[in-house]
């Protein structure tokens, strides 16, 4: 990879902020990808249309108007203003397929970076899942301990009641000073 291409790679945080969770998939939008690849959104979409067989529904889909409105609302800024139609969303496989459609050095370098970020996110999710399972195990143990403690205290209360019933308070005998 040339020195020029290495300096063009975008910071990971920028790419990570452009990955959205839509319809149960982590996706990137056509406009964000075009900006990263340093081409126009129109040219990116034309390349996709010319190679549409490479992009089945699980690789790329068009957002519904409702999804598009929700996305604009979540971001707070209408970055995609002036569009005639809702953006296309590319899943991880769709982004990988774009590397075969767009062959510029910038597109290749950015695509490699995006694939690495998707992989890193998948590993982070797996790590979080393991942590979540461990926390659930601990919670279950604690719940069981709480229940066991309740039972122990209930038995202690019952024993105290039985002891009080079996041994009623005795009448005191002996000398009583005045006033008692």
Automatic annotation (TrEMBL):
Highest taxon of source: Bacteria
InterPro entries given in the database record: KilA-N_DNA-bd_domain
Ranges for domain KilA-N DNA-binding: 17-101
Name assigned to this protein: ORF6N domain-containing protein
């Amino acid at each position: 990879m040339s020195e020029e291409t290495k300096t063009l790679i975008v910071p990971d945080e920028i790419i990570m902020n452009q990955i959205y969770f839509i319809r149960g998939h982590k996706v990137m939008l056509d406009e964000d990808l075009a900006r990263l690849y340093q081409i126009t959104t129109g040219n990116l979409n034309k390349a996709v249309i010319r190679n549409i067989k490479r992009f089945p529904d699980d690789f790329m889909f068009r957002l519904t108007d409702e999804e598009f409105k929700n996305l604009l609302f979540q971001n707070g800024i209408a970055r995609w203003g002036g569009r005639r139609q809702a953006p296309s969303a590319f899943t991880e496989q769709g982004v990988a397929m774009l590397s075969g459609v767009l062959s510029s050095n910038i597109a290749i370098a950015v695509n490699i970076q995006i694939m690495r970020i998707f992989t890193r996110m998948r590993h982070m999710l797996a790590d979080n899942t393991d942590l979540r399972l461990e926390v659930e195990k601990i919670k279950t143990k604690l719940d069981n301990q709480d229940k066991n403690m309740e039972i122990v205290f209930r038995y202690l209360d019952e024993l105290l009641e039985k002891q009080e019933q079996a041994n009623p308070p005795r009448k005191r005998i002996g000398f009583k000073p005045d006033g008692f």
